[in-house]
Write a structure and sequence with these properties.
Order of helices and strands of chain A: HEHEHHEEEHEEEHHEEHHHHH
Strand order of the largest sheet of chain B: 1-2
Largest sheet of chain A: 8 strands, antiparallel
Mean pLDDT of chain B: 75
Shape of chain B: elongated
CATH class of the largest domain in chain A: Alpha Beta
Number of strands of chain A: 10
Low-confidence stretches of chain A: none
Number of domains of chain B: 3
Strand content of chain B: 5-15%
CATH superfamily of the largest domain in chain A: Glutamine synthetase/guanido kinase, catalytic domain
Helix content of chain A: 40-55%
Largest interface: A-B, 59 and 49 residues
CATH architecture of the largest domain in chain A: 2-Layer Sandwich
Mean pLDDT of chain A: 90
CATH topology of the largest domain in chain A: Creatine Kinase, Chain A, domain 2
Distance between the termini of chain B: 64 Å
Radius of gyration of chain B: 23 Å
Oligomer: heterodimer
Number of strands of chain B: 2
Number of domains of chain A: 2
Helix content of chain B: 40-55%
Structural class of chain B: mainly alpha
Chain lengths: 351, 177
């Protein structure tokens, strides 16, 4: 019953499109990697260890948090794919974990992955830019678990993780950010290398490098050791603020210098999405990005900002096939995707 | 831009690796990137940062010479992970591996974490008071140095008193444990 809910509930709370600075920042995610001290890491552990971890963590959280336990072995490939597309679980957990499981909150803003690369990956998601709040939430869950679990921790190296890239804080904070202005003004190619030198990673979330699909980028910290959690999120936060400022000035400049070209582009994309009968992922992303920019700039009204946040999740292959109730060929998916987008656009208009 | 691997298809993926300020850029087409296990984007399960990492570790002459001669003998007594295996997978087998391979770990951590080797963040509550006090002491000393540097001597005196207090508590904790 509850599995059905996670699969069929279309949107998670963090996709709502609200939250601070939501005209540029789509969502914030914080992940803490943790391991039990006396059990081998998932790299080498045995089935019994894996099972014990799931049982212990389920007991540890069930008292104070209301989370639903989903075991990977109980899910169909399509169900797992939908959870991956919702960012609730990772492809690694879905496909190659030993007795992998996830504990997910009703709002889908908390997901604890169990027996992925580490015993625990505590993930919290929020809409907009909310680094401190999201970290606080992850810490709250971490503290709660720690009351009944002895973590692998070393005074010198911090929280011990399977991969040394995560050791120390075990913290990966990331921000998903929509930067059409910087892409249109061709500034991303210069910005990405500069950010990389600050110990942060930028990647196109659904595409590659500077040519990110839908102009959506994910920025996260690379270093986990030698800095406090507060310093890590402050550094990330200040870079995000800098990017938001530059994005704003790029948008201002575009409106000032190419007002009619910009308006034309936005309404053409709106036209495509409102009328298409078949659409591929790439084109859909690009048009959605334009429409979202149009909403942010006030060209397009009566459509919710959350359209980009929601549709970028819902128009993925797993979701489309879940709605259809079975596998679809690429062409059939393009038809379904177009129908979904059209339906979504008219729905928002009548609201 | 043509793929650097097959020299046929157009490059679809662009990787920038920055290690200690040294920048390496590579371009692959989707197929080659996939085959190389460096399919970084789109959350593909074949994506493995570890492949990149293990390449990084084993390219270190310090390790390759060591590992070639007697690397196989070095292992973690708890989970039996060998250092050689760690270099291949980029992953440890258990918490004890960090102790077992401690001497070799420092240069690796330095490379991965911008020269850092010591944890400065959160400490589990149940680790006991001493660690928390040590951390507090560390922070206070940093504050003290900063204040002296900025010639805020009155405030510095307050912080110095706080340091004494924490040191006192710490010696109490140490004696009790």
């Amino acid at each position: 019953m509850s599995l059905e809910r996670f699969i069929n509930q279309q949107t998670s709370s963090w996709m709502s499109g609200g939250g601070p600075y939501s005209d540029v920042v789509l969502s914030t995610r914080v992940r803490l990697a943790r391991n039990f001290s006396d059990v081998c890491f998932p790299t080498v552990f045995q089935f019994d260890d894996a099972k014990q971890i799931v049982e212990q963590i389920n007991t540890a959280t069930s008292k104070k948090l209301s989370l639903e336990l989903l075991k990977m072995e109980d899910l169909s490939p399509l169900q797992k794919r939908v959870l991956v597309e919702k960012h609730l679980i990772s492809p690694l957990l879905a496909e190659s974990s030993l007795y992998g499981a996830a504990l997910i909150s009703e709002q889908e803003d908390i997901s604890i992955m169990v027996n992925e690369e580490d015993h625990l990956r505590i993930q919290c998601l929020s809409s907009g830019l909310q680094l401190q709040e999201t970290l606080n939430e992850a810490n709250r869950i971490d503290d709660m678990i720690e009351e009944s679990v002895q973590y692998a921790f070393d005074e010198k190296r911090g929280y011990l993780t399977a991969c040394p890239t995560n050791v120390g804080t075990g913290l990966r904070a990331s921000v998903m950010i929509h930067l059409p202005g910087l892409v249109l003004t061709r500034q991303m190619n210069r910005i990405i290398p500069a950010i990389s030198q600050l110990g942060l990673v930028v990647r196109g979330i659904y595409g590659e490098g500077s040519e990110a699909l839908g102009n959506i980028f994910q920025i996260s910290n690379q270093l986990t050791l030698g800095k406090s959690e507060a310093d890590i999120i402050n550094d990330l936060g200040s870079v995000v603020h800098e990017l938001m400022m530059r994005e704003q000035s790029a948008r201002d400049a575009l409106v000032k210098t190419s007002h009619i070209q910009l308006e034309d582009r936005i309404f053409r994309s709106f036209g495509v999405l409102s009328n298409c009968r078949m659409v591929e992922t790439n084109e859909a992303f690009q048009c959605l990005s334009d429409v979202r920019l149009g909403i942010d700039l006030g060209y397009i009204q009566h459509i919710s900002k959350s359209i980009l946040n929601e549709l970028m999740i819902l128009m993925q292959p797993g979701f489309l096939q879940q709605y259809a109730g079975g596998p679809l060929r690429a062409e059939e998916r393009d038809v379904r995707r177009a129908a979904l987008i059209r339906e979504r656009l008219t729905m928002k208009e009548t609201n | 831009m043509i793929c650097q691997e097959c020299h046929e298809r157009p490059a679809a993926l662009h990787f920038t690796k920055i290690v200690n300020g040294e920048k390496t850029e590579v371009y692959f087409c989707e197929k080659c990137a996939h085959e190389k296990g460096e399919y970084l984007f789109g959350g593909h399960p074949a994506f493995s940062l570890n492949n990149l990492l293990s390449g990084l570790f084993s390219s270190e002459p310090l390790f390759s010479s060591n590992a070639a001669s007697h690397g196989e003998d070095e292992h973690c007594e708890k989970c039996h992970m060998t250092f050689q295996k760690f270099l291949q997978t980029g992953k440890f087998g258990c918490a004890h591996c960090y102790t077992a391979f401690d001497s070799k770990l420092t240069p690796i951590l330095k490379r991965l974490h911008g020269g850092n080797t010591r944890h400065q963040g959160k400490i589990p509550k149940r680790m006991g008071g001493a660690l928390h006090l040590q951390k507090e002491l560390h922070l206070l000393r940093e504050q003290l140095n900063e204040m002296i540097a900025n010639e805020h001597f009155e405030k510095a005196a307050d912080v110095r008193d706080q340091i004494r207090e924490v040191e006192h508590k710490l010696s109490g904790e140490g004696g009790g444990a």
